[in-house]
C-alpha cells in the first residue's frame, strides 16, 4: 500500500473513504463540507496509517462512544467525550463501564498521565484543524467529581477552565456526576455560571430515593442527601440541572406477567425503586427546578469484569424470559423489550403527572446539539 498522508488533501479524501463503516456517520450526518470532513479525519484518525482501515488516534477529547456502531443502533454524528479520570472510586455494583473498560472500573482509579498537556494539545488541534463545532460530554466512563481524585488533582476544574477559554469550539457542554457537591464549590460554580459557558448542563445521576438502597447498590458513591442538597444549590445558582434516574431497575411493582421474574427479595436484592420512591424523587426534582428526568433500563455487561453484577442479577435476568434464557445485545444482558417498555412508561407517566419532561437516555444524547 502506498503510504497515504492525511495532511495531503487528496490522500485525506482516500483515507476518509476507507474509515470503518461504523464511523461513516461522523463524516456524513451533518452535511459537513469537504474541508470539515478532512478536519474531522485529521483530528481523530491516524495521519499515515500503516494499513487500512485507518484507526483512531489516542485523543483525550475523543469521539463520544468510539466503540458504538453509528451505522446501526447508535445513529450519531460528530460528538466529543472527555473522560477526565480512568476508573471510578464509586464502584457501583451495576457499573456498565465494566463492559468495555480494560480493568474492572473500581480497580485503582487514577489520573491520566500528562492530562493537562494532552488536553491543551487536543483543544489546540481541534481549533487548528477546524473541526466543526460539536457537543462535548464529560465523562461517560468515569466520574468527573471523584472525591479523592478531584480534591487532590483538580483536573476537572482545570478542564472547565480550559473549556471556558475556548468555549466556542463546542456547541454545548454536559457534565455528568454522582458527586455534584464538588461542583457547588465557588471555583466551579463561578466557571459554570459564566455567560460564555452556556449552554452547559449538569446531569446528576440519582437512581434511588432511600439511602439504604443506595448503600447496597452504590456503597462507595455519595449519599442521596448530599446529591439532592447539591442539586438544589446548583439550580439556585441558575445552573441548568437534569436528573438521571439511571439505571431504571427491575421492579416488583411491574405486573408479574410483564416482569417474568419473582419479587426482588427472592434474589436477595432490596427493592431499588418502588413507585413511591420514584414519585418522591421526581417530585423533589420538579420542586428543585430540575429541567428534565433522563433514564434507561438496567443492562448488565457480559464481561468477566462485571462478575459481581452477573452474580447479583443473573437469575433475575434469566427468569424474566419465559424460555429461561438470557438475551445478550451489544455485549450486555437485556431485560425483555416489553418489560423495558413497562419500566420506561411507568416513569414517563409519573413525570407527566408531575409536569417535568422525561427523556430516554439514548434519545437525550442523539438530540443534544
Ligand atoms: S459512577 Fe458511573 S462510572 Fe463510576 S462506578 Fe458508578 S456507574 Fe461506574
Description:
- The two termini are 39 Å apart.
- The mean pLDDT is 95.
- With 369 residues, this protein is an alpha/beta fold.
- The protein has 14 helices and 13 strands.
- A hairpin with a 2-residue loop joins strand 11 (327-329) and strand 12 (332-334).
- It has helices spanning 9-17, 24-28, 34-44, 115-129, 147-153, 155-165, 186-192, 211-217, 224-236, 256-259, 275-288, 307-319, 337-354, 361-367; strands at residues 61-63, 80-82, 85-86, 110-111, 134-138, 170-177, 200-205, 240-248, 293-297, 300-301, 327-329, 332-334, 358-360.
- An eight-stranded mixed sheet has the order 1-2-5-6-7-8-9-13. Strands 10-12-11 form a three-stranded antiparallel sheet, covered by helices on one side. Strands 3-4 form a two-stranded antiparallel sheet.
- Bound molecules: iron/sulfur cluster.
- Iron/sulfur cluster binds next to loops.
Amino acid at each position: 500500500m502506498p503510504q497515504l498522508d492525511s495532511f495531503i488533501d487528496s490522500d485525506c479524501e482516500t483515507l476518509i473513504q476507507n474509515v470503518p463503516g461504523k464511523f461513516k456517520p461522523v463524516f456524513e450526518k451533518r452535511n459537513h463540507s469537504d474541508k470539515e470532513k478532512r478536519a474531522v479525519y485529521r483530528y481523530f484518525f491516524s495521519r499515515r496509517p500503516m494499513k487500512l482501515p485507518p484507526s483512531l488516534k489516542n485523543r483525550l477529547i475523543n469521539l463520544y462512544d468510539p466503540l458504538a456502531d453509528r451505522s446501526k443502533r447508535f445513529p450519531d454524528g460528530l460528538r466529543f467525550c472527555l473522560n477526565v479520570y480512568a476508573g471510578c472510586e464509586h464502584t457501583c455494583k451495576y457499573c456498565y463501564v465494566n463492559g468495555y473498560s480494560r480493568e474492572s472500573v473500581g480497580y485503582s482509579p487514577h489520573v491520566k498521565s500528562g492530562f493537562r498537556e494532552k488536553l491543551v494539545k487536543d483543544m489546540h488541534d481541534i481549533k487548528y484543524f477546524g473541526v466543526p463545532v460539536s457537543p462535548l460530554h464529560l465523562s461517560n466512563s468515569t466520574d468527573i467529581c471523584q472525591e479523592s481524585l478531584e480534591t487532590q488533582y483538580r483536573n476537572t476544574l482545570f478542564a472547565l477552565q480550559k473549556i471556558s477559554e475556548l468555549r466556542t469550539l463546542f456547541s454545548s457542554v454536559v457534565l455528568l456526576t454522582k458527586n455534584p457537591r464538588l461542583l457547588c464549590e465557588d471555583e466551579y460554580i463561578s466557571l459554570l455560571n459564566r455567560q460564555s459557558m452556556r449552554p452547559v448542563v449538569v446531569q446528576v445521576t440519582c437512581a434511588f430515593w432511600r439511602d439504604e438502597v443506595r448503600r447496597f447498590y452504590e456503597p462507595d458513591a455519595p449519599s442521596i442527601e448530599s446529591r439532592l442538597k447539591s442539586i438544589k444549590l446548583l439550580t439556585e445558582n441558575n445552573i441548568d440541572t437534569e436528573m438521571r434516574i439511571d439505571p431504571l431497575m427491575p421492579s416488583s411493582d411491574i405486573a408479574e406477567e410483564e416482569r417474568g421474574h419473582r419479587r426482588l427479595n427472592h434474589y436477595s436484592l432490596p427493592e431499588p425503586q418502588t413507585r413511591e420512591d420514584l414519585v418522591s424523587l421526581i417530585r423533589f426534582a420538579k420542586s428543585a427546578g430540575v429541567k428534565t428526568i433522563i433514564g434507561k433500563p438496567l443492562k448488565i455487561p457480559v464481561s468477566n469484569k462485571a462478575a459481581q453484577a452477573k452474580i447479583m442479577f443473573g437469575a433475575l435476568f434469566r427468569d424474566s424470559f419465559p424460555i429461561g434464557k438470557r438475551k445478550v445485545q451489544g455485549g450486555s444482558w437485556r431485560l425483555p423489550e416489553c418489560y423495558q417498555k413497562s419500566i420506561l412508561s411507568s416513569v414517563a407517566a409519573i413525570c407527566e403527572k408531575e409536569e417535568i419532561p422525561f427523556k430516554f437516555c439514548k434519545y437525550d444524547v442523539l438530540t443534544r446539539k
